[in-house]
Amino acid sequence: MTKEQSIHSYQEQFAAFEKTLNGESGSSFHALRREALLQFAETGFPTLRNEDWRYTNLNPLTGTAFAMAIQPAESAMLRSQAKAHALRIPDALTLLFVDGHFLPRLSDLGSLPEGLEVRDLPAVLREDALPVGSAATDATVMRNNPFTALNTAFTRQGVTLSVRRNALIEQPLHLLFFSTPAATPFVAHPRVVIDVEANAQCSFVEQYVGDPGAVYFNNVVTDVHVGENAVVQHIKIQDESTAAFHVAANYATVARSGHYANHYIGLGGALLRNAIHAVLAGEGAHCTMNGVYIPGGVQHMDHFTVTDHAVPNCTSHELYKGILTDETRGVFTGKIIVRQDAQKTDARQANNNLLLSENAQIDTRPQLEIYADDVKCTHGATVGRINDDQLFYLESRGIDRAQAGNILSYAFASDIVTRIPLASLREAIDDRLYRRLEESWKK
Amino acid sequence: MSTDAQDLEKLTGQEYKYGFVTDIESDTVPKGLSEDVIRMISAKKNEPEWMLEWRLKAYRMWLKMEEPHWAHVEYPAIDYQDISYYSAPKRKDGPKNLDEVDPELLATYEKLGIPLKEQELLAGVAVDAVFDSVSVATTFKGKLKDLGIIFCSFSEAVLEHPELVQRFLGSVVPQGDNFYAALNSAVFTDGSFVYVPKGVRCPMELSTYFRINSLGTGQFERTLIVAEEGAYVSYLEGCTAPMRDENQLHAAVVELIALDNAEIKYSTVQNWYPGDKEGKGGIYNFVTKRGKCAGVNSKISWTQVETGSSITWKYPSCILQGDNSVGEFYSVAVTNNRQQADTGTKMIHIGKNTRSTIVSKGISAGRSQNTYRGQVKIMKGADGARNYSQCDSMLMGDRCGAHTFPYIENRNSTAQLEHEATTSKIGEDQIFYCNQRGISTEDAVNMIVNGFCKEVFRELPMEFAVEAQKLLGISLEGSVG
Amino acid sequence: MLEIRNLHARVEGKDILQGINLTVRPGEIHAIMGPNGSGKSTLAGVLAGREMYEVTEGEVLYRGKNLLELEPAARACEGVFLAFQYPVEIPGVSNTYFLKAALNAVRKYHGEEEYDSFDFLALVKEKMKLVEMDPSFLNRPVNEGFSGGEKKRNEILQMAVLNPMLSILDETDSGLDIDALRIVANGVNKLHTSDNAAVVVTHYQRLLDYIVPDFVHVLVNGRIVKSGDKDLALHLEDHGYDWVKDIQESVPERV
User: Domains in chain C, ordered, with CATH?
Assistant: First the structure.
């Protein structure tokens, strides 16, 4: 299928989708959907000539025909099926999404802590209530991000999460996205809107899982607003089927003295693109972005992060690490923008990569774009392999090479995990990482 | 604003010192570009048929190409049909020595502080001065000739050494490499040619000063330097240009080829007219510079100090093809007022154990935009390749921008790459510390900036380093607050 | 030599110095002690002309001139030297180059002939012995990669080369081990003559075992609340600053 045919098939899907909306097609949000579709059709899929997509060839994605995901039948079995793939986070509340659809009846909604509100997106949209002015629905954003436009065109499934002023939510909220094995590839466009009001604190764990070998396309958009002095821990564990496509755009705005931390663990997907756009919009705001990606086999993982310092006195720290094995390909782009008014910015960024196989590839682009003068900005990037002396040292103590390599690469990756402030989650992730690395060193 | 800032503001107000127009009758081809114009240029230069064919091929490629827009610079669209592609100072026969050179030209250099005669006598530098597009003076040829070194204008090389030109021209920067290189290939008027034979160490720094004169004339130099097996050569390029009202396009191509165990050092001090305070006038500098380390253990080193031009688009690069070959890039780029620079390097590692070093120092002042863009690419066969990159930016004033865009592309697991970058403001506490020891703010800024750039300056030949430091002082006067 | 009258100064809108009075005569060494945040470093900074401090009231006469009217570089040329608590690093600028530029700036100010490299090096090497510094320091960038002790020794070396009339040592002892402290103090003592003067700002009495002050002043909340001789420092060491805090309301003694 050519790119044009692919765009055309989305247009056809949209026509069919419109018919299912029953009376909602007159809503202001639907007008936005139409605009988004027009925008998407006009821009088309990004090509390698687009600087932001220079290292990711989308042909496998655009060459696959995807049907629209259908509403799954809610059953206890479905829940246990999904849970089987999920990380066990003992103290978390689970929100279950299957094939992009939020399933309230299979989620832990009965025991929500005070100050936290969870709403099914279709219900919100029926009231025409999704905040239209949010980053992900912005015209410029859609023009520059065709996948976001595509998501907006099809936005119906998903959830809105609101944390009230001063609320302290201790239990992490586990958003578990499970994709079922299906006969034909399907596409889902889930939308998650998180609004954390002033002085509130909360943690979200977004996890994507699927049956091994299942072919599907998750085109995710997450819209996060961190209120004044609020603290949000946003953890994403991307553990899709290794045959799946996952394109995600996460838009975060951080108000005065707010703190947004995004922790990313990337393991799954045949072709993955994870974009984070964080805007530090109020003075004293802070943003942390930490991530680790460990593709295996022939996986392609592209990480695109933008930290936009819009106002003075904000800080941002970013550390991304990659371990590349087999015939994998890793891409990292980290852009720090310091606007003219953003004096006294302190921004740091680093991207470190281990290349463990001769057929693996890494492309890394740490970028500084600075328009203010009184700033401190640094970035660094390294690419190397495991230190031979260290390997030998471990071997000389009786540890076999595979095990030694595993220990050393695990130490490299776990640096990211230790920065996640939820102990229960750290253990679960650690365990998952260790198993993943063990697989790669056994080969 | 602090008192220091005001002082500095006053100082930065300094106008371009080297702005003037030499009144010389020029032999200029009418504006516009076509196959006929290219034939005319080629005919004026008495070029052989193969050279004309080469140009025409480039022109046909250029017609199909699009002007690149990915650089972080903005400028009004260029009308390529509104440019005159050839201009030469009028004279019948080439001068045999300096006495025959048009006295007005010599006076021009005098004003620029580059008295040819003095240089010849004192500095021991062979000078191939380009006024507009044609060489007007070449010195020290005899001495070089004894060693078998060819150092002449490009036009002369086409006529005298066609076999060498045909063998190497376009072997590093092919005609269709990019939009500006294609344009240059079609219309280049002159430049320098250097050939250092096997095992010869060129005993002196080779130097050429480029000037731009003649209203509305684009400059398209072509430089080709070949170092045969075991040869060594150090080449200096320096530029200042008279003041202009109109923007002037400059699209040079420089090709370097180092064979086994050869080394080429290419140093540039670029101080073309940057435009006035509002950015009016000034040179557009779109240059393609590339070196190929074709042989084993070969080395190519680029050192540049860029203070001029209103727009700079320039990425001196190294193709590290030979095993154990080494590429280096040392750069200081200063932008002030409305200048825009998008500059950096490409290091393409192909051979085994190839090494590259990148040290880039960017200084932005006024309302300028200064971008480092560098690519390090490790190809699959480049076992044991290593790169170290360091990009530091210094900001002076709150209306300028400093941007760092490295591209690190690795296809080989045994390669090791390191990239570091920092951006910071010139330190107020550093200036105060100097003040407290009795050093004035102006001297303190000069001292701090020169210290910041030291790693690059020490790569420059001595006399160039001195000139570069002076230039930096002039370019930045009054920009600190 | 130095007369400070009712000096008030603020930084970022906060009043730090609230009426300092101090007189320093040639040949004297004054120690200014006080708890953290009492304004010691502010006083040093105001005297050297640091821009971040705003003088709101009072005057400072230095050898008959209004010191506060002079630019920082002019104050240095007039012979006011500040040994920094945190000497800054200047990457790429060698110690030699820096010192020579400074010395010649001062000489030029006084209409004296500038040193050439040869005479300068001879002078510096002589002075380096004073602070037991290795000549290799000269080629290293100013303070870059220096240990804490090396930085402080470098400050004293600069003092030795520039030969100031009034030296202000701001917490020169902080972060020094006993050997480095001895070297630094020894340097200061050797440079002291009956013509010049020093103001030693410190938090601890320790330094004063090596540099014996003629006067000790206790600074609390931006005012000198007690003055005395070196025994006052010993008393402070034993009783802590709380002892003087109680008497801060009493009228400061004029020295």
Answer: 2-250 (3.40.50.300)
Say if CB B122 and CB B255 are below 8 A apart: no
Rounded Cα–Cα distance for residues A26 and A199 (Å): 37
Which of B389, B439, B393 has the alpha carbon at shortest distance from B410? B389
Residue A49 lies in a domain: yes
The residues, any chain, with a CB within 8 Å of residue B6's CB and separated by 6 or more, are none
Q: Which residue is associated with the tokens 């007369």?
A: C3
Q: Do A370 and B420 make contact, defined as CB atoms within 8 angstroms?
A: no
Q: What tens digit of pLDDT does each residue of A37-69 get? A: 999 999 999 999 898 999 999 999 999 999 999
Q: Which of B3, B429, B447 sits opposite C101 (nearest CB)?
A: B447
The answer to whether A210 and A169 are in contact (CB under 8 A) is no
Overall average pLDDT of the A229-242 stretch: 95
Convert B326-339 to b/e letters by CB count within 10 Å (16 or more is b): bbbbbbbbbbbbbb
Last residue of a domain, one of A282, A303, A335: A282
Where exactly are the structural domains of chain B?
Answer: 25-424
- The pTM score is 0.80
- Specify the DSSP element, H or E, that contains A381: strand A376-384
- HEC string of B30-85 equals CECCCHHHHHHHHHHCCCCHHHHHHHHHHHHHHHCCCCCCCCCCCCCCCCHHHCEC
**Rounded-to-integer distance, Cα B152 and Cα B128, Å:** 7
Contacts of C92 in chain B (CB under 8 A): 450-455
Q: Tell me how close the Cα of A237 comes to any Cα of chain B, in angstroms.
A: 26
Say yes or no: A255 and A393 in one domain: no
Residue A39 CA to residue B200 CA, distance in Å, equals 63
Which 3 state secondary structure label does DSSP give C149? helix
DSSP per residue over B134-151, as a string?
EEEEE-SHHHHHHTT-EE
| DSSP-based three-state secondary structure for B165 | helix
Task: Tally the domains of chain A.
Answer: 2
Instruction: Give residue C8's identity as a one-letter amino acid code.
Output: H
Query: How far is A329 from chain B, CA to nearest CA, in Å?
Result: 9
Pick from B398, B406, B415: which is nearest to A365 by CB?
A: B406
Tell me the nearest-neighbour CA distance from B438 into chain C, angstroms. 4
Residue written as token pair 């290292």 = A55
Q: So what's the pLDDT on residue C92?
A: 80
Question: pLDDT of C87-142, one tens digit each?
Answer: 888 888 888 888 898 999 999 999 999 888 888 989 999 999 888 888 888 888 88
Residues of chain C in contact with residue B446, where contact means CB-CB under 8 angstroms, are none
CB contact under 8 A, B422 and A357: no
B203 alpha-carbon distance from chain centroid: 22
Contact check, Cβ <8 Å, C51/B450: no
Average pLDDT, integer, range B169-197: 91
Q: Above 90 in pLDDT, residue B351?
A: yes
Q: Is residue A61 domain-shared with residue A203, that is, in the same domain?
A: yes
pLDDT at B109 over 70: no
Closest CA in chain B for residue A373: B398
Q: Token pair for residue B401?
A: 């921008």
Task: Please identify, among A244, A261, A282, the residue that sits at the C-terminal boundary of a domain.
Answer: A282
Query: Do residues A135 and A267 both lie within one domain?
Result: yes
Q: Are residues A399 and A274 in the same domain?
A: no
Domain residue limits at A240? 3-282
Residue A134 lies in a domain: yes
Query: Can you tell me whether residue A84 is helix, strand or coil?
Result: helix
In a domain, A190, yes or no: yes
Do residues A278 and A396 share a domain? Answer: no
- What's the gap in Å between the CA of B115 and the closest CA on chain A? 40
Helices (H) and strands (E) in chain B — how many of each?
13, 24
Mean per-residue pLDDT over chain A, rounded:
91
Q: Within a domain: residue A195? A: yes
Mean pLDDT by 10 residues, chain C (255 residues): 94 90 94 87 90 90 92 91 88 86 90 88 89 85 84 91 93 81 89 93 85 92 89 81 63 44
